[in-house]
Design brief:
There is one protein chain. It contains 11 helices and no strands. Helix content is 63%, strand content 0%. The protein folds into 2 domains: 102 residues, no CATH class; 73 residues, no CATH class. The radius of gyration is 17 Å and the shape is globular. It is mainly alpha-helical.
């Protein structure tokens, strides 16, 4: 009878929840790259939120087309650390190599929801990054950042939202340049 065969990637991913082993457990799947992706994806369903958050951070680097939907779903996790890690991973283009970042149609909705109503200020700050990616091209992103900049209860979130609005450092740095 054939049973489920665990690779050494599965226990490695579980170590993401152990504060003593988390750093090494994060480095090794990055080294193994695509060989570890299945275990990282499976770790998104782990009972320990530290493991789920670690898997979101790993997918920032290892994400592929099959993982994107799962990563987007993690923006609605019950744990704030997981939601924040998922939002950062969805927003960050720097770490993804040649993988295409998800488009506005897939990620702006979760970003807008978290920015408007997440109870955790760190999650809202990560949502600013995701929503801010679309400030130059989507009026909903601009309106949400304006609201957050004016009304968010957290001064840190208000400040960060301002960076993505006209006149802000990130807005200016990411503005499309005219051809020529």
């Amino acid at each position: 009878m054939l049973g489920f065969v665990r690779t050494d990637n599965d226990p490695l991913v579980s170590c993401l929840g152990d504060p003593q082993r988390a750093v090494a457990a994060h480095r090794e799947p990055l080294r193994r790259a695509s060989a570890a992706v299945d275990a990282v994806r499976a770790g998104l369903g782990h009972h320990d939120p530290a493991v789920r958050a670690g898997c979101c951070r790993l997918l920032d680097h290892l994400v592929d087309g099959e993982s994107m939907g799962q990563l987007i779903a993690m923006a609605d996790d019950v744990d704030a650390r997981v939601r924040g890690a998922a939002l950062h991973s969805l927003a960050c283009d720097r770490c993804k190599g040649d993988t295409c970042a998800p488009g506005v149609d897939r990620v702006l909705g979760p970003g807008l929801r978290r920015l408007a109503a997440d109870p955790d200020p760190h999650v809202r700050a990560m949502a600013v990054e995701l929503v801010g990616k679309f400030v130059h091209t989507d009026a909903r992103a601009r309106a949400a950042l304006d609201r957050s900049h004016a009304e968010d209860p957290s001064p840190a979130v208000r400040k960060k939202a301002g960076w993505f609005l006209p006149g802000g450092a990130v807005h200016e740095r990411t503005a499309p340049r005219p051809p020529g």
